[in-house]
Please model this.
Amino acid sequence: MRRDGRVKRLMFVGMAMMALNACTGAPDGSPLVLNRPVSGTERGAVHSMDLDDGDYVEGVLDSGTDAAELRLVDRDGRPVRLLLNGTAGQVVFRFVAGPGTAALRVTPRGAGGYRLALTRRIAVADQHPVLQGHPSPTIAALAETVKRGGGTDAFWQDVARRGTPLVEPLIDPPGSEQVMMTFLARGARRNVRLLGGPNSRHETFERLGGTDVWFKSYVVPVSTRLSYQIAPDVPDFPGTCRECRMAILAQLQADPLNQRPWPADAPDPYNQVSLVELPGAPPQPGFESGWAEPAGQLVAERFTSHILGNTRDVAVYAPPGVDPAGNDTVLLLLFDGPDYLDQRAPVPTMLDRLTGDGRLPPTVAVFVANPTADARERELPGNPAFAAMLADELLPWLSDRMGIRPRPDRTVLAGSSYGGLAAVSAALARPDRFGNALSMSGSFWWHPADAPPDRPEHVAGLVASGDRRPVRFFLSAGLFESGSDGEIGILESSRHLRDVLEAKGYAVAYRDYAAGHDLFAWRGALGDGLLTLFGVARP
Model:
């Protein structure tokens, strides 16, 4: 009896020690060394590690078909972090070692064993970005010249001859449908920002060492068409995001090294943009021969809406020989109207050419202005009152003034940005008057302030939940209008709306352009959209 009692006491002591080790995290398993796996049983174990503060560590736990828990513990056995919570099979884990990091504790939840390994360890001294070199061959060659003690004068002389941005073929892969595009600025003291480049952000240029060369490189399609401005030495001060953005806008100007300022007769570079059209950029219908004085009749009047309680400019343009009251005449209502009347996007010139050579049937354009900038923010984004104004006030007004009595299937609402959103939402709201919608970079990310956070695309939701209406659509977006920081952008929301419309059985045409949020691209998209919706087949 005494011997049995002694055995029981020894077993109790052993079990107590195991429990103590499990609670305190005292190492009882094989120490972990980089790339030397250790094994354990169903009892689990604590495996010590020799790490320095700040080490980045990766490892693998393989518990087979049974689940296991993996915790990081400190020198006193206290839990620091739960790395894996009941995962089975081979799973990768990662952590950054703190000053007290000492061991890994494995707790199997089944009868099988496990294998544990540290596969990667990067010390703080080795944690720095790997320099990939300069993606532009020209900038890389200049960097070598500067490294050898050379200057930048010859480089700038060559740039003045070639113009900016620099466009270079990609070395890998050869024959690619993409090129390297590098924007340049000379002599800035503190910084340079870019607006209108191949993304939707205000990009920051990089400085080449201590030289006077500032640059930003992108890989872009050979079909790229865009306009841009640069902002040197933007004031840097504490403020909100909007305040900092306004500081960038205060410095935006045309690139002095670009050889295509637009418009050419602007009063100063701050009122110009710089153009880029790569050889693969698609033709813009009606603009093939540049700008020309419109040959038709433009009538500008003031229009008052009782529904909206305001007054705005409305201009009506009829190309030569086009009868506004004709039964087959197409009526184009274009929002943000003044933007499409000047030399940047001369829609009257475009209509003269497209109707004159028979590519487009007789078309009358109505350029609808915004009363104020604030009114635009209220009226264009999905506003039923704005749709009612168009259908119940503006169309009767046009009929009284000019005899225009359009059929819904020959009427198209068109616009860009918020205007594209307005064109689609107003046509869906009033298909009895508007049978076509043409959107250029429509702001389909928009939603009312009270919309649920998980439903940010208001128009797509309306289409999905509503009955199909007798409306045709042309949607377009720029490849450089993708969202950032986890937010959906114009590109993604336009493509999604296309998919929802198609799923509901709508007639919808969609087109991507290698462009950004840019009037220079929209004028071509407008012509493409009109020809898609109403174009006359040529023999």
The two ends are 112 Å apart (CA to CA). Residues 440 and 522 are 6 Å apart (CA to CA). The first strand starts at residue 38 and ends at 40.
